[in-house]
Design goal:
With about 220 residues, the protein is mainly beta. About 10% of the residues lie in helices and about 45% in strands. Strands 8-7-10-4-12-13 form a six-stranded antiparallel β-sheet, with no helix packed on it. Strands 1, 3, 6, 11 and 14 form a five-stranded antiparallel β-sheet that branches. Strands 2-15-5-9 form a four-stranded antiparallel β-sheet, with no helix packed on it. The radius of gyration is 16 Å and the shape is globular. The model is unreliable at about 1-25 (pLDDT under 50).
Length: about 220
């Protein structure tokens, strides 16, 4: 299964330049589930509440572990300097303080096994100003397994109820981790296009995802 997944990645990498030029094609990679055994997710720390979540209700069936959006650095072999970041939107119901995010980002089998997670404000409906992070998360679970999550902890960040924010998965643009190839598994929501964005590097901006698939994860903290 590992060989099959790598062949899919290589085929995808051959088309990265086209993706960057059009910025209109969804970058989804498919694999075969690696294990029928689903490991329960990490526990929510005591004292933290759910500010936002799109995860499934079962601890062992939180997201689609065989499909994911590409998150990769510019120094991935064959990538020609392009990078791709992914963003998950969340809107707190009330004023809150974000302390942690848990997201379904998994290792794609190439380069450094790590990802950077950050929180951004929103500008014109897309990620805008960096508010917290990046926090580097290492030793990600392997793509095609469920249901371990990548966990990033932040100093409590005040967010405003009814205001849109973004959790962004990224890589460094140079140095350690810039060769990382990861996948952000997703969930399918609703019957209309969902609110997700990806960034096309080397002069590109943020572009809306056209489908129903939403990067899977949740935002935790305190709600006064």
């Amino acid at each position: 299964m590992r060989k099959t997944s790598l062949l899919v990645f290589l085929a995808m990498l051959c088309n990265l330049t086209l993706f960057a030029q059009t910025a209109a094609r969804t970058r989804i990679v498919h694999t075969t589930e690696r294990s029928e055994i689903h490991v329960p997710r990490e526990e929510v720390p005591a004292g933290l509440q759910t500010i936002y979540s799109n995860l499934g209700t079962s601890a062992t069936d939180l997201y689609d572990d065989s499909d994911g959006y590409v998150v990769l650095g510019p120094n991935v072999e064959g990538n020609d300097g392009y990078y791709y970041w992914e963003a998950m939107q969340f809107t707190p119901a009330t004023n809150s303080r974000v302390s942690q995010v848990q997201v379904a980002v998994q290792y794609g089998g190439s380069g450094a096994n790590r990802v950077n997670l950050s929180i951004y404000g929103s500008t014109n409906g897309a990620p805008g100003t960096l508010l917290a992070g990046p926090k580097t998360v290492k030793n990600l679970p392997t793509f095609g397994t469920c249901c371990t999550l990548a966990v990033a902890k932040f100093s409590p960040l005040a967010v405003t109820g009814g205001t849109q924010y973004w959790v962004v998965a990224s890589t460094p643009t140079e140095g350690a981790g810039s060769d990382s190839l990861d996948l952000w598994d997703f969930v399918v929501q609703g019957e209309t296009p969902a609110s997700g964005f990806f960034s096309s590097g080397v002069g590109g901006g943020w572009y809306a995802e056209p489908g129903l698939e939403v990067p899977a994860g949740e935002v935790l903290g305190t709600i006064p």
